[in-house]
Amino acid sequence: MAITDIIKKTCKSLGENNKPTYVVMAIAAVKGICRPAFTMMDKTENPETKKYTALREGLTEVIAIPAYWACGEIAGKSAKKIFNSDAALAGRAEKNLMFMGVCTAALFVIPALCSVAIKPIMDKIGLKSPKDNEKNNKPSDPSPVIKPAQLTPPVTALNTFPRMSTFTSRPQTGLRVGGL
To answer: Residue 90: CB partners within 8 Å, gap ≥ 6?
Structure first.
């Protein structure tokens, strides 16, 4: 048996027995591995922000995989009950309803589950969002001090570069290609 025969046989088997739920679960599994890994490789981001973001992305996919599976299977089972008399139609309807179940999971179920579950899980682990850390680290002073320089509105010169004190006659907005 040649390698091309094995490839043809595998592709035929996958094409005949493929369910939309399996495809989406495979994509979610790859996203659950790759997105946190790429987030952690970002050298420009704050380490605490990277940890928080990577864990949040991983948890989202951990929640998504069973949600895709459950919604797809529930929708597929309903097709079998609805179209039990016509086997050919039930097979096609099962795959279509599985696809609709997966779409429903992506649009409604997963965002709802993530909004309910991720914050408590992150709090139990001890990771807080960078915004929450900033709020906790700032001293709460009810009366801000206004300096005399803040009472007058700032005066900005027109048509000048923010970092240069020279005047230029052309406007510095829009897309410029090349030149100074």
So the answer is: 79, 80, 82, 83, 84
Q: What is the pLDDT of residues 60-105, one digit of tens each?
A: 999 999 999 999 999 988 888 888 777 778 878 888 899 999 999 9
Do residues 99 and 18 lie in contact, with contact meaning Cβ atoms separated by under 8 Å? no
Residue 149 lies in a domain: no
Instruction: Give, to the nearest 10 degrees, the angle between helix 47-82 and helix 110-125.
Output: 140
Q: Which two tokens stand for residue 132?
A: 């929450």
Nearest to 62 by CA among 110, 102, 5: 110
Please tell me the total count of domains within the chain.
1
Position 96 in a domain: yes
What's the whole-model pTM score?
Answer: 0.65
Containing domain of residue 103, as a range?
Answer: 10-134
